[in-house]
Every structure is written in structure tokens, then in C-alpha cells.
Amino acid sequence: MFVAAMLSARPELTERVMADVHAVLPPDAAAMLTEGSSGALSGYRFGLERTSLADRPVSYGAFRTMIGDARLAQGTRLAALDIMERLGWAEAAIHRVPLDDVHFHEIADWDTLMDVVAAGSISAALAATWSIAALPLGGGLVRTAHGLLPVPAPATTMILTGYDWRDDGVPGERVTPTGAAIVAHLTAGAGSGARRGGRLAAMGTGLGTRELEGVPNVLRVTVFETDGPRSERTEMMTFEVDDMTGEEIATAADLLRKVQGVRDIVLVPAFGKKGRPVTRVELQADPAAGDRVRDAVFSQTSTLGVRRQEMRRDILPRAKGLEKGQSVKHAVRPGGVVTTKVEQDELTAETLQARRRAAHEAEQ
């Protein structure tokens, strides 16, 4: 439903999403976006047309391998793996098994892989801040491989602990584990929160496959745009090292900058325990790549611990241009003021004074 609603609101994403989805599906399967209705409301359904169930993914490892090996658009792999990992950790916690030993039952199908990759593709394509209303609680029992279980399913409640729910009196499973993992990925621990204001740019409606009594089975998304800074989630990792040489630290920082998902690294000289000189490393990363970046930190540095904190960063609208033969970056600041900064790598003059003169001329 999420994918259908988003492609309804942002049809320009359809080509990218379909390409990513078909990169992980078998040749005899096809993702379909079709018009339909639920109750009195029209919208779209996102589904899978297939001719066989051969070699369907069952284990967490199988899902991870299929996503990892596929040729996907930029950012899709990290986002899809994050969604899948949330599903995996929930099952691992419920059954008390290691993550790599998780075997799925109800979601062990191509449909799940399709939904996860499609949602990851949308998440990666949009530098958006997400908020959600209170989630429908549902009610009754759901049939699983482990017998009848109360709604919401255990994995759903595990993933969405801390989120707001509402009881609208409509029974049935209203939020699936896959849907829960998508919600958790998009909001990244922020939970269900108030919407930010802006200009309403689009609305989309995704349809479910079941008909509910007395209420349309739909998911609606609204897209708002703002003229000011955009927000994105980022993960800050900080740690100190006191037993690496300057050359080793510089090499490690260069290697970490090349790790997919790393956004920025700052090195700060400081004093640690017993007055020892240390280097504090402040690293920003895409939250979806957090664990991968953490592992790279432990591999490239001597630190024994990393502090991790998710936060939001606001980014000014920016665009690249060319001024007087120099590549520049334009930024739009509050009040509509546009500032221009020359790209330092473009300054090739031999002396500092000549480089400063060229930058000054381009930035006027």
C-alpha cells in the first residue's frame, strides 16, 4: 500500500522503482501498478504477477544476498537492507536465535522482497522528512506457522514499540510486519509525530487487497514542499584515539570517507584521560548504513568503542554553476539571499594569492 500510494503521488519515481524491483525478481515475475477502488475511494494497487514460486527467499540471509547482489539505483541497496534487517532482528528477538539463523514463514515470498526493495528505492530517491499518524490497532487473531496469534503480530509490535496506535474498532491485521519495518525505516526511531508545515504538493492513495467492514482499506500519503532548508536524518558517530600516529589517522580518515554511507568526517585535537593528547573523530553517516560504517570504524582505527546518536540536520537549497570559468556552488539562505562559493578543487593557480584572487572574482 505504501509503494502504491507513493507512486500515485510521485509518478516520476515509477521507472526507477520498477527497475529496482525487477532487478531482484525472477524472470517469470512482474511487478504491476494497477488502478482500482476500495469502498468509495479510488487509488492504486502494487502487486506481483508471477508464474512460479521457485527458489523463493526463505531465510534472512537469502533476502540479504538477493538485495546485495542486485544492480540497484543509488541508495536503494542500503535502504532495502535496513528495512530487511529490522524484520530480521524482530524475528531473531522473538525466537531467540542469531540474526543469520532467522527463517521467515508468512513473509517468505517474492512479494516481500518486492515491497522491501520498492520502499527502499522510494526512500533513497527522496530526501524527505517523514511523519505518520497513529497506527490502526486492528483486532482478533491471525493465522501463522506457529498457530493463531493475536493482532498485531509479534514482529509488528516488536518493530513498532514506542509508536502511537489507535483503536478504530475495525478488526483484522491492519499493519503487517513488512509494513511495520517500512514505517520504522522511514521514521528512524522518531515514532509517530506531528507533521511539519509546507505547501501541499501532491496526494496519493494506495489500496489494500482486503475489503474492510465500514471503512475503505487505503493508505494515503500527502507530500509537502518547503522553500527553506530541507531536513534529513543522519547518524553521528564519535570516538577518540590516543595511540595512532598522525599519518595513521589521516589514512584511516581517507579510507572511511570512501565507505558507502559516510557523509562527513571531522578530526578534532583534544585532551583525554590523564591529560593525554587524543584525536576526536566526529563522523556523519546515512542511518541506513550505520552498522556497516561502525564496522569500518573498528577495522580502520584502534578505538574500542563508538558513541552513536541519530539526529536531524537541516540543509540549505543548493545548486552548482559556473562563474568566470570556475565551478561554484550557490546556496539559498533565509530571506532569499543567494551566496556563492567556488569549488576549492577548481582553483589550480600556483600561488595562494592567485587562488584567492580567482575565488574572489568568481564569488562576486
From TrEMBL:
Pfam family, one: Ni_insertion
InterPro entries: Ni_insertion (IPR002822)
Keywords (A to Z) from UniProt: Nickel
Name recorded for this polypeptide: LarC family nickel insertion protein
Gene3D superfamilies the UniProt entry points to: Transcriptional regulatory protein pf0864 domain like
PANTHER family, per the entry: NICKEL INSERTION PROTEIN-RELATED (PTHR36566), PYRIDINIUM-3,5-BISTHIOCARBOXYLIC ACID MONONUCLEOTIDE NICKEL INSERTION PROTEIN (PTHR36566:SF1)
